[in-house]
Each structure stands twice: as C-alpha cells, then as structure tokens.
Amino acid sequence: MTGEVDWSGLTQFRFGDSPELADRLASLVIVGVKTATCSAASHGLETSEGEQQVVLSGEGQPVGIIQTLSLDVLPFEQVTPEQAALEGEGDLSHAYWYDAHKAYFEREGTYTPDMAVIFETFRLVDTLDASFAARAGEHLKAERAEARAAGYTAAGAVS
Questions:
Q1: What region holds the ASCH domain (predicted)?
Q2: What mean pLDDT do residues 23-31 have?
Q3: For 103-158, what is each residue's pLDDT tens digit?
Q4: Cβ(99)–Cβ(111) below 8 Å
C-alpha cells in the first residue's frame, strides 16, 4: 500500500488538536495499531460507514486513507476496555484512554460527565507518504514510553 488509490475527492482531516498529536495518532494508524477513534457527538456525524477519508499529518500532508467500518453513539462513560484498546493509544488500557480523552474533550470544551461520543472503527486502505510511514514506528515507541513514564502499565501493551 503506497499511494495507489485516487484520493483527490475524499474528505481530509487531522486527528487531535495539535500538530504533534496529529502526527502521533496518524502514525498509530499507519503502523496498524489504531483502528478506532471517537469524537464528541455534539459535533455530529462527519463520516458514514464505508466512506473513505484522507488522514493528514500535523503539517497537513496526506499520509494515509482510512475507510469507516462502523459508527456507534454511546455515553463517554460506557466506552469499553476493548473499544479503548482499538484506539491504539498509550499503554492500550482503558484508564489511559479515559484520562487522555477526558483531557482532550475538556480542552475542546465539550466534556460533560454525561456526554455522548461517536465511536468509529476503521481500516487503513492505503499509505500515501512513505517517508512518514518510515518514521511512524518511532511515534509508537514514544507513545508507549510516555504512557509507562506516566504510570500506565496495562498487561499486554506492546512497546
């Protein structure tokens, strides 16, 4: 998978709320450990099942194409450990997911204890930037190391 799909007409987006977070999360997608994401339901549905989208780096460069597999609306507090692990973040634990996402939603001003989220699963369709992909493993190592340094130690987390 190296840029074989025509993505010119696809919606483009960045994960997260900073260039650094966008790079980190896009890297997790490219290495195959991030197959889900969630957003505040108050933003509304921004995709549909089967739709393909271009993932951008923190600098706005296209790095991959994902295809949405499922969309579920549920209370933030009801995201399961299995769903949290699909996001591929931190040490893969529900505790890390909860803390990181609560902080994110607080930064964007959407967090409430009873908020609803849209939980999206997806698959990587294509990699568009070989140089970014070559560096993606370093982001994964940093993600795991930072989680360990912060005291998160889920069993089964891959470093």
A1: 13-126
A2: 98
A3: 999 999 999 989 999 999 999 999 999 999 999 999 999 999 999 999 998 754 44
A4: no
* Residue position matching structure tokens 């964007």: 108
> What is each CA distance from 157 to 38, 78, 91, 94, 148, in whole angstroms?
20, 22, 5, 12, 10
What residues does each domain of the chain span?
Answer: 11-149
Choose which CATH entry (1.20.1250.20, 3.40.50.2300, 3.30.2310.20, 3.10.400.10) describes domain 11-149: 3.10.400.10
87 DSSP β-pair partners: none
Closest CA to 22 of 52, 54, 56, 66: 56
Q: Mean pLDDT for the chain?
A: 94
Question: Which residues are CB-contacts of 57 (< 8 A; sequence separation ≥ 6)?
Answer: 14, 19, 22, 23, 26, 63, 129, 132
Tens digits of residue pLDDT in 58-111:
999 999 999 999 999 999 999 999 999 999 999 999 999 999 999 999 999 999
Gap between the terminal Cα atoms of the chain: 24
